[in-house]
Structure formats: C-alpha cells, structure tokens
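Researcher: First entry.
Model:
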Amino acid sequence: MAETFDFPFELGAGGDETPRTRQVSFGDGYQQSIEDGINTLQVSWGITISGDHARIIAARDFLRRHAGVRWFWWRPPLEPEPIKVKCKSWRPVHASTTSASLALTLERVYNPGA
C-alpha cells in the first residue's frame, strides 16, 4: 500500500502546471495544436518543510525510502483530493543547532497501480 506524505509545509508553496501538446506549423503561418496523449497535464510543486531536526530527518527518511522511483500520495494546496507524486531530489538546510528545513519538488505521476 502506498504511503502518504503528510508533513506540514510552509506557506507560499508554488505549483507549475504545463499541458503537454503537439503542434504542427504550416508555411502560411497557420498552426494546429492537440493534446499529446492521455493525462497531458504535467504538475509539479516546490515546497519547503521547516522544523526541528527530528521532523526534517523523518521527512528526509521518507523521501530516501521512496528513492525517487516509488510514488506516494500527497495533497497539494487548492486540491480536494491527494495525487500520486514522486520526488527525485531534495535539499536539506541546517538552520541552527535545533532547526532545519527541507526544500523539495514533487512531480505528479500517472500510474494505474493503486
């Protein structure tokens, strides 16, 4: 069963949504565009988690366990339901002797597995 990434993150998280399309151009300047396949909306979110070392280590260990190849559930801001995502890289920052942060990018995946 897939896990859920439910670590609280800082306000100001930013998402990117890019429809995947194909386009053909004709000599007279006319262009036609179509969606490229199914599940054409590519979605990614950059988030930062801040807190004590224990929270950051727990989040980092979660990401290491998934190794950038296994998907997990995450609910983005402005969405009512969680989506399947992968995280291919993250960046821990040691802020002080008691606090740290973890910056990461979550990318939506379309996987038929439950």
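Researcher: Second entry.
Model:
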Amino acid sequence: PLAKKIAVGDRADSQTRSPTQSATQSTDPVIRLLRALAEGPLSSGELRKQLNLKHRPTFRENYLHPALEKGYIEMTIPEKPSSRLQKYRLTEKGRQVLREGEAE
C-alpha cells in the first residue's frame, strides 16, 4: 500500500514539474527542497505546503535533516531551533548544488 501511495505522489509530481526539470531533480527530496527555497527563506510549514507534504516526520527525515546535515540549507535563527519564527534558507553550497542540478 505504501508503494502505491508513493507511486501516485511521483506521478502527480511529474505532471506539475516544469519542462526544464529532469525526472531525477523532481524526485530527489533534497533537490525539491532546495528548489522550494530558491526564492527565499521559508518556514517548515511553508516548505511542506509548497512541496505538497502533509506528514511532518517524513518531511523532517527525508527532506529537512539531510539538507541541513549536508550544509545545503541553514536556519535563520540557529540559536533557537524550535522557534515558531524559524525559517530555512539556502547556503552558498545549496545554491551551488542547485546550479549543478544534483545532490550527493
């Protein structure tokens, strides 16, 4: 059942991506997150909404934490990680990954 849900999500995503995005870019969670942040800082809730994700733990485990650990994004208020005003923004390394179109 889980595989079906993922497959349906992938299909929906492939229909909404721009023609210039490759299939790899649209399905890599970290790349999707970086693309969402390309316009500027967003909160966790704003990111989930933009990525059409409802399950917070999955978002944190598959998108947010890997991007933070790789240094692609950073918190706007690092001294208060659980602040309700917390947002995330691209780092220079994250912008470079976006330009190259791939993540490690």
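Model: Note on the second entry: Residues 2-16 form the longest helix (15 residues).
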